[in-house]
Amino acid sequence: MKAACVGVLVASLAWGCHSGSASRAPVRAGLTHVVVFWLKTPGDAEARRRIVDASEGFRSIPGVVAIDAGQIVPTPRPNVDKTYDVAVVIRFRDREALEQYQVHPKHKATLQELGPLIDHTVVYDFE
Fold first, then answer.
1. Quick one: pLDDT at residue 102?
2. CA–CA distance from 104 to each of 7, 35, 55, 59, 127 (Å)?
3. Burial class (CB in 10 A: 0-12, 13-18, 19+), 33
4. Torsion sign across C-alpha atoms 9, 23, 94, 108
5. Backbone angles phi, psi at 102, to 5 degrees
6. Which domain holds residue 60?
7. Is the torsion defined by CA of 31, 37, 43, 46 positive or negative?
8. Mind giving me the DSSP string for 25-88?
């Protein structure tokens, strides 16, 4: 059940990230990287904010095309996963850019800083 709910989350994020609106055009990227976070202290507003804010800093890493990060949105819908705290969607130019991001000093430092807040993550990469 949890995997199905997370799958729905990823599909929703992917659709939202690639659908256009009147105010912003769709972003095309070679690879989309989705990270869903569960905190050691679920619901910790400060920890959620720190992860969202830190994610914005990845915009300066070469090969990053776009970033969307945010906290869970409460909903009564039964098919929506309500267990996670934060989700981050990063779009990369290509697979090589994702590989370079993984070892980039800014990414590694952020993982080191925020790691103590995080219980676990689920990651989805797709083209």
1. 97
2. 28, 17, 13, 12, 21
3. buried
4. negative
5. -60, -30
6. 2-126
7. negative
8. PPP--SEEEEEEEEESSTT-HHHHHHHHHHHHGGGGSTTEEEEEEEE------TTS--S-SEEE
Number of structural domains, the chain? 1
pLDDT digits (tens, 9 = 90+) for 80-107: 999 999 999 999 999 999 999 999 999 9
CATH number at residue 24: 3.30.70.100
CA dihedral 38, 41, 59, 107 (to 10 degrees): -80
Which two tokens mark 79?
């098919």
DSSP state of 90: E
- Residue 75 CB coordination number (10 Å): 10
Residue 94: Cβ within 10 Å count:
14
Token pair belonging to 9: 């989350």
